[in-house]
Specification:
alpha/beta, about 290 residues, 7-stranded parallel beta sheet, single chain, TIM Barrel, two-stranded antiparallel sheet
Length: about 290
């Protein structure tokens, strides 16, 4: 991946489910990442805190690095996006730490675990209410100037924070990763702002509002009734999950959904969403 453009208009892989509670064995996890690459996925999203147990810092980053190394050739165009500024003590809870010194150590640790001289895209995982936001963003600018990271992203931010970061980072800021889905559209203002600024918008938990069965088994028969996503899925002969991701891509040209996956079949189904075109009538039925 060269330049500052992210593969918007396609589907990325949210690798978190491969390392947290309920994760698959390593063989299946690596097979899932390889299936994503085979399907044309060119962005893998990870974080230093994607782990199950307290002593597993960087579990997901190491897993992604092993999977890419085992895949062989064809990974030069894959952008690995990591994040820093949050932690998981091992009891299912989350912590936040946006102090500049912590972010510098975190980015250096992530680069080492990923086996890269510079992280392709590094994102502030969440603003720390105890640290001035501009100080956290300033640390990311320093990391970019030092060559530890190439591009900068934000996660879990509001419009004002995006504007502040854009002022500090300029063209180094390339993405925003916020929760967004058919069932969670309160962050639409941040999507609209990203579209106006030319920033990639990466919805996390993009399948909210789609039945768990559709997410867990995209190959399962689409049931009668259900949500409008089920109705459109029946019309196209595809999964509601695929319809949901196609809906995301239709929201703006800057959208790059990052659904999680635990099985090869799931990410193959998700990746095919970039080929599904929904009509104006179908989008009106789905809302948003």
């Amino acid at each position: 991946m060269t330049g500052s453009r992210l593969p918007v208009g396609t589907i990325g892989l949210g690798a978190m489910p491969l390392s947290v509670e309920g994760r698959p064995g390593e063989g299946q996890a690596i097979a899932t990442i390889h299936a994503a690459l085979d399907a044309g996925v060119r962005l893998i999203d990870t974080a230093d805190c994607y782990q199950w147990h307290a002593d597993e810092l960087g579990h997901n980053e190491r897993l992604v690095a092993r999977a890419l190394a085992a895949y062989g050739s064809g990974t030069a165009e894959v952008l690995v996006a990591s994040k820093g500024g949050r932690g998981r003590p091992g009891d299912g809870s989350w912590t936040v730490n946006g102090r500049p010194e912590h972010l510098r150590r975190a980015a250096e640790g992530s680069a080492a675990r990923l086996g890269v001289a510079a992280i392709g895209l590094y994102q502030l995982h969440k603003p720390d209410p105890e640290v001035p936001f501009a100080e956290s963003v300033g640390a990311l600018r320093e990391l970019a100037e030092a060559g530890t990271i190439r591009l900068v992203g934000l996660s879990n931010v509001d419009c004002e924070q995006i504007r502040v970061a854009h002022e500090i980072l300029g063209e180094r800021l390339v993405s925003v990763q916020n929760r967004f889905s058919p069932a969670h559209q309160v962050t639409r203002d941040t999507l609209d702002l990203c579209a106006s600024l030319g920033l990639a918008f990466m919805p996390w938990s993009p399948l909210g509002g789609i039945s768990p069965s559709a997410v867990d088994d995209p190959g399962a028969a689409v049931p009668a009734g259900g949500t409008p996503f089920h109705a459109v899925a029946r019309a196209h002969g595809v999964s509601p999950q695929r319809v949901c991701l196609a809906w995301h891509l239709a929201q703006a040209p800057v959208v790059l959904p990052i659904p999680g996956a635990r099985r090869p079949a799931s990410i193959r189904d998700s990746a095919a969403a970039s080929l599904l075109r929904l009509s104006t009538e179908e989008l009106a039925l789905l809302g948003g």
